[in-house]
Design brief:
Layout lengths: L1 E9 L2 E7 L1 H4 L5 H9 L19 E6 L8 E8 L6 E2 L5 H13 L9 E8 L4 E8 L11 E3 L2 E13 L17 E5 L2 E10 L1 E7 L13 H6 L2 H14 L15 E6 L10 E7 L2 E2 L5 H11 L5 H6 L6 E6 L2 E10 L2 E19 L4 H13 L1
Parallel strand pairs: 2-3, 4-6, 12-13, 14-16
Antiparallel strand pairs: 1-2, 1-18, 3-4, 4-5, 6-7, 7-9, 8-9, 9-18, 10-11, 11-12, 13-14, 14-15, 16-17, 17-18
């Protein structure tokens, strides 16, 4: 079996990009096919194309809708690494940045003017994302030159504007109806804010975890010591937010976890510090869908973020992350609220992925050995 794919970087993530028609040519479900393509279950993903980290074990499935106001529809898949499983429960904002670039490079959308506007829809959440790709003089630059925090090399600039993003997964910006809640775990009662915008996120105060806002560089070690407790709280939050019936049924990818604090006194370039967890581990930069939730959380009275940023709404919000400061922006347009962030994207390779002909039996055998 052979499957054509593009390997692309979007923001601080890498993903394999497929066109949906290819999955219709095989009788194997994407829930079975994708883990085998990526080499899961295996913490190295040695016999597949996965990168063995949460930010590099991702797939995007694209299609061109017929008779619609949307240029491109896309489905995001977070492929398990140590589990032969696919999480379809949320979108990836970083990987979303490849969609507009792919559409231009494949001729699905013709560039117009210095910025080409591409309307995309994420099928996981129903979210409309207006993508703005830099196309000076009506074309992609011959050599991409846009820079962003967390990536050492340039790419093509892609702005992502999430249209009215509140409640796309749970139906409400504040799924529990409260701006802050209590969750008890490991014998301690924790104050959290649960926000759904871009992706569902449960927000903690860094101080409650014993983390010093003035020493952001020390957070990673402190967070890694508390991953088990954070996972217990995250799973309870999944139930409280209506994402799972029981804590054992909570998905790995949502809700995400965000640990926040006021900026250090020595850091005048940010509005607050954040460390996000994705798939149970600290994110090396920031999940962009999570940044959308943080941005709306900061605009919502009574949340832990509102306590930090105050009531003064700014058009941009500066988030200190392990990769540097990331800016998000908010604007009203045509009666809708757009919440967005600028990313870069680049195509890394165009390839054909080879799979064993006896895919079904190979996958069944792998799953059986993994569960023994």
């Amino acid at each position: 079996m052979k499957i054509e794919a593009e390997w692309m970087r979007g923001g601080t993530s890498k993903c394999w990009v497929f066109e949906s028609g290819q999955f219709g040519e095989t009788e194997t479900s994407p829930d079975v096919l994708l883990p085998r393509l990526f080499g899961s279950p295996d913490h190295r993903q040695i016999d597949g194309v996965g990168g063995a980290t949460s930010t590099t074990s991702k797939a995007m499935i694209l299609q061109r809708p017929v008779g619609d106001d949307v240029d491109v529809e896309f489905t995001f898949a977070q492929v398990g690494i140590e589990e032969a499983a696919v999480d379809w429960g949320s979108n990836c904002g970083n990987c979303s940045a490849v969609v507009g670039l792919y559409a231009i490079e494949k001729g699905w959308v013709v560039p117009t003017g210095d910025v080409t506007r591409i309307i995309t829809r994420n099928t996981n959440t129903g979210q409309i994302i207006i993508q703005r790709v830099s196309t000076p003089s009506g074309a992609l630059p011959i050599v991409p030159q846009a820079q962003m925090p967390g990536v050492p090399f340039p790419g093509y600039r892609v702005g992502l504007g999430f249209q009215d993003p509140a409640g796309k997964t749970t139906g409400k910006l504040l799924p529990t109806g409260s701006a802050s809640d209590w969750i008890t775990a490991s014998g301690t009662r924790w104050t959290v804010s649960m926000v759904d915008a871009g992706a569902p996120v449960v927000i903690f105060r860094a101080e409650d975890l014993g983390l010093d806002p003035e020493r952001y560089d020390s957070w990673l070690a402190g967070v890694e010591l508390q991953l088990e407790t954070l996972e217990l709280i995250r799973r309870q939050a999944a139930v409280r937010m209506g994402l799972a019936a029981t804590t054992s049924e909570a998905a790995r990818a949502v809700p995400k976890v965000a640990i926040v604090a006021p900026p250090a006194q020595s850091d005048p370039d940010s509005d607050f510090s954040v460390m996000m967890l994705s798939m149970g581990k600290p994110h090396p930069a920031l999940a962009i869908t999570g940044s959308i939730a943080l941005t709306l959380g900061a605009r919502t009275p009574g949340t832990l973020l509102d306590d930090i940023t105050g009531d003064t709404l700014q058009p941009t919000l500066r988030l200190r992350t392990p990769a540097g400061v990331i800016e998000t922006w908010s604007e009203e347009r045509d009666g809708s609220l757009l919440v967005g962030v600028d990313r870069t994207a680049r195509t890394l390779a165009t390839t054909v992925i080879h799979l064993p002909e006896a895919l079904g039996s190979a996958v069944d055998a792998s799953l059986a050995s993994a569960t023994q």
